[in-house]
Amino acid sequence: MSLVQEILYIVSNYPGGYRTIYDILYDSKPPPSKSDRYNIDYTVRNTLSRLKKKGLVKNTNGKWSISEEGKDFLISKKRNIKSFFPLGNRSNKSENKLLVIFDIPEKKKRHRDWLRHELISLDFSLIQKSVWLGPPLPKEFIQYLDEIRILQYIKFFKVSEGDLI
Q1: Strands in the chain per DSSP E
Q2: Which of 26, 56, 75, 121 could form a disulfide with 51 if both were Cys (CB 3.0 to 4.6 A apart)?
Q3: Which residues in 11-153 belong to E strands, given as ranges?
Q4: What pTM, to 2 d.p., does this model score?
Q5: One domain for residues 63 and 30
């Protein structure tokens, strides 16, 4: 997934300021050197500026959000990737939660990006780039992970609200 697509996915699911976008993209961990931090910051800001000029995102009072054109752009990029659950399927407010941790190899990057998007669609919250917390997953979803051969790279842990600190 390109930086443009990642930013569009972030602002479509987590509308917020620049810091929110940066933290989700880079796990709240600054790169080791000052020049790397500057280069990444410059790249993200320039990408947001280009997306705004193209009408794919909007900035209202410092909050970035996706435009209708941006949504159409994401849909056009996803046409050849299966969407298991539609965005907006967010009704399960169970006390039991599921912690999902994955380490999917680079050669399966497309599946890793797909999984992140589907977890967002299933109302999961990002803890770190490959650590997510959310409601229990449907059995069919787990079976599909096995079908596309990424289940072996994923670990699931049941937690309750009382277990969380």
Answers
A1: 57-60, 63-66, 96-102, 125-128, 131-134, 154-160
A2: 56
A3: 57-60, 63-66, 96-102, 125-128, 131-134
A4: 0.50
A5: yes
